[in-house]
Amino acid sequence: MQELFRQNRKMGRPPMRWLVRKNGLPFASFLFCPDKTHKTAVLRNRSKRILRELVRKHLSLIPVGYDCALLVQKEFAKLSKEDREGLFLSVLKQFP
Fold first, then answer.
1. What is the mean pLDDT of residues 76-80?
2. CA distance 76 to 8
3. Name one GO molecular function term (predicted).
């Protein structure tokens, strides 16, 4: 995963950014990273739960063979469910 942060392609805009890198495997792997603006573990865990659910729901749209890090700020969890999903799908359209 360290290589993902060194050599990557950045997509999206705050409050959600994706870092992606080819891994050459027959599946995609994900890393969920709430940033330091999340002051408590409760807020970080909530953001990770939301991201995991979005990935599960739209897994068929995500290409295989990539490592993906999803970076979110605390404003992401404050968005409405529809806005979060719209932001997720807009970033997914930029996927290589």
1. 93
2. 22
3. tRNA binding
Nearest to 50 by CA among 18, 74, 21: 74
pLDDT at 96 over 80: no
d(CA 21, CA 78): 28
Helix, strand, coil % over all residues of the chain, rounded to 5: 45, 25, 30
Per-residue pLDDT, averaged over 11-38, amounts to 93
Phi, psi of 93 (to 5 degrees): -65, -25
Question: Closest Cα to residue 32, out of 13, 15, 14, 45?
Answer: 45
Please tell me the class of the 1-93 domain.
alpha beta
What pLDDT does residue 2 have? 78
